[in-house]
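Sequence and structure are no longer studied apart. As an example, we show below a sequence and the tokens encoding its fold:
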Amino acid sequence: MTSKLLLTLCAAAVLSACGGKSDETKTADAPAAETMTPKAVPTVTAASVKVSDALLSALSAQDEKIKSRYQSRHPGNTLAFFEIEPGMTVAEALPGGGWYSKILLDYLGTDGEVIGIDYPIAMWSNFSFMTEASLKAKETWAEDWVAGAQDWRTDNSANLSAATFSTVPTSTHGQVDAVLFIRALHNMARFEGNGGYLTGAAQTSYDMLKPSGIVGVVQHRAPEAHSDEWASGNNGYLKESYVIKTFEDAGFTLVARSEMNSNSLDRPTEEDIVWRLPPSLATTGPAKDDDAEMIAKKADMRARLQAIGESDRMTLKFRKN
């Protein structure tokens, strides 16, 4: 990797290995008063987290579509904060198209393993958009995801496997170094009353982890002053206090938090959903070609939401007791 590429990547990802701190990072490290909770644990800044050369190399190897979100998602700082290292076995909840999985595959290396974990199959029937065919397809999700992820691999990539939270094999119990929930909790919280999905995922994570193993959470953060109903997951946001209680009830200890993924510009009202923001921009769909006024309004709204950026996110590190 050339020194020019390394410096460029570090600046984009706000990576602490470069030394110093951008104005954006300084803002991100200052938590808003209304979102703070009283837990007496260290708040770790992005600048205090050392991003290793191996992680920098994995970040630089990704395609431009992934790199374009580094400034919003800070994957180098985030993975370093969660103590992820080459050779580990790391489970990633709801890996989807592999935004984090691709980085992990490169970074963990041939001695490591990435385990993709989807929602329990039964949970998918709670989504109104699921058809009979799509529900049927979920029955083979684990095999299909691993097969599709082969295109992401190189000769130096980690091993791959997958399961759902209801089909994690007992052979993984006590074998996993870390379980990551990156923007993956809100739907399980949303349908918790229908099947105990979030508490079940927390318990499964506890079973999978080695002693002192890590759960890392990055999640859209609701203001603590908002109603519990609005912050139930339906709108994408959860309260930090709720997330902490969920994992503590499962036997974990909150050991550190960080504001490296916070965004002081995202201050949702109880009329808002998280998907209004980039990259979804769900409330700024196309207008009719002949409706000039609506086109202008949509363009203005899109510009304002783009200026806000991605959501305000809590970053929490739990350790298995």
